[in-house]
Amino acid sequence: MKHPLASTLNQILRKSFFSNLSMYRLGLLILTVGWLLPVNLLAQKANKTKKTGAISFTKQVLTEEFIAEGVAVGDVNKDGKVDVLAGAYWFEAPKWQKHEITQPEKFFYDKGYSNAFVSQTMDVNLDGWLDFVRIGFPGKEAVWFENPKQKAGHWTAHTIHATVGNESAGFFDVDGDGKLDLLGGNSATGQMTWFKPPVSAANVTWQQTAISKEKSPGSEPFSHGLGLGDMNQDGRPDVLIKEGWWEAPANPLQPDWTFHLANLGDACSQMYAYDFDKDGDQDVVSASAHALGIWWHEQVRNEQGAPQWNTHLISDKFTQTHGLSFTDINSDGYPDLVTGKRYFAHMGKDPGEYEPPVLYWFELKPGKNPTWIPHLIDDSSGVGVHVVTQDITQDKLTDIIVANKKGVFVFKQERK
Ligand SMILES: [Ca+2]
Ligand SMILES: [Ca+2]
Ligand SMILES: [Ca+2]
Ligand SMILES: [Ca+2]
User: Fold this and answer.
1) Run of H or E including 411
2) CA nearest 392: which of 408, 373, 411?
3) Residue 5 maps to a domain
4) Is 111 domain-assigned?
5) Ligand nearest to the Cα of 233, by number
6) Which of the chain's ends, N or C, has fewer CB atoms near its CB within 10 Å?
7) 158: burial class by Cβ within 10 Å (0-12, 13-18, 19+)?
8) How far is the CA of 237 from the centre of ligand 2 (A)?
9) Ligand 4 centroid to residue 361 C-alpha, Å
């Protein structure tokens, strides 16, 4: 049977196409056609609209206590919901009920630091339960806490390495096997080192590979700037510091990688490689850890054909960008930046320390002259020594998770 609206629609169609098209009629036509579409098609349409609409973030405060400078996410209790882990605690989703992982200590935002810096979850002992991996104060130990599988009491701590240097030591897939490794300086020897987590439950040890010579830049406790990216585009991710990069060999377990000097700017936090100006070579993005500036370092060639780096300012809106994430926030296929102020990073001695602890995302428009559009998310949180960007509410939109001296926060992405 013909739908009663079909003839009306037909008339509108005829009128619209055979007389002049007015915007009003076109709108009416779209509305009418939309009304007649099967429900599942409408649902798809609504879903698509949701993903391209205006972006906002809903803030959730897990605690306003200073417990950590870094944070991790993962389903701790296997109920299908992604929990948040920071310092001595895990916060159970969706109500963020606080549970102790280990004995808490008291930290003061204006007197010092915590013992929990860049953090990550992974199943270290391969028993099917996510464990908590925590890099401590720069130059000190990295530890993994064993998930007790719902049993009461604190989690058992195991030391991975006693002296992990570089303030952006963190978790990267160095050997490309799909699992994160720990990468940082061995500050006892001054060697850039990566630690591969156990591959068998029978032998829970981390395999250590020093990729640099002793006393290399980037490996001291307070070295600033570290990243992983394929600088020479041979398909193997290389290790970046602000003084240059180590070229990954065919076998990443081989020690002493070749180092290439490069001037990749001032002391910074996380570093990322990407072809921002779309000229075929890899450029680098970084942000000042304690002072002012977010930059991209454009790769160019000198007269001899050797790589050279021209640094361009992206933003100087706020200082202390000690955590930088590189992720596609608006789902347009281009990785955006998420950063903010690491509130009271030097207890009042850094420039701009008393300014509001803002959190921003910068929307990338790549091209010959790439641009980044700043979007303010919040002005009372900021970032820690890293910022986690992951879809933790499982709606395919990237959320932002932060722990720092202001507390622990989840920013859930919403689309209009
Ligand atoms: Ca486990
Ligand atoms: Ca490479
Ligand atoms: Ca380029
Ligand atoms: Ca994007």
Assistant:
1) strand 407-415
2) 411
3) no
4) yes
5) 2
6) N
7) middle
8) 5
9) 10
> What is the model's pTM?
0.88
18 inside domain: no
- Residues spanned by the domain of 120: 55-415
pLDDT class of 51 with cuts at 50, 70, 90: low
Ligand 3 being an ion, which residues bring their Cβ within 5 A of it?
275, 277, 279, 281, 283
Q: How far apart are CA 332 and CA 139, in angstroms?
A: 39
Residue 25 pLDDT level (bands cut at 50, 70, 90)? very low
Each residue of 114-162: pLDDT tens digit? 999 999 999 999 999 999 999 999 999 999 999 999 999 999 999 999 9
**Which tens digits make up the pLDDT trace of 104-123?**
999 999 999 999 999 999 99
| Residue 387 DSSP SS3 | coil
CA of residue 98 to ligand 1 center, whole Å: 20
Q: Phi and psi dihedrals of 198, rounded to 5?
A: -55, 145
- Where do we find the tokens 């897939």? 173
The CATH number covering residue 290 comes to: 2.130.10.130
The CA distance from 412 to 392, in Å, is: 8
> Could you give the number of structural domains in the chain?
1
Question: Is there a domain that residue 223 lies in?
Answer: yes
Q: Cβ-count burial of 300 within 10 angstroms (0-12 exposed, 13-18 middle, 19+ buried)?
A: middle
**Distance between CA atoms of residues 262 and 407, nearest Å:** 37
- The angle that helices 4-18 and 23-36 make with each other, rounded to 10 degrees, is 150
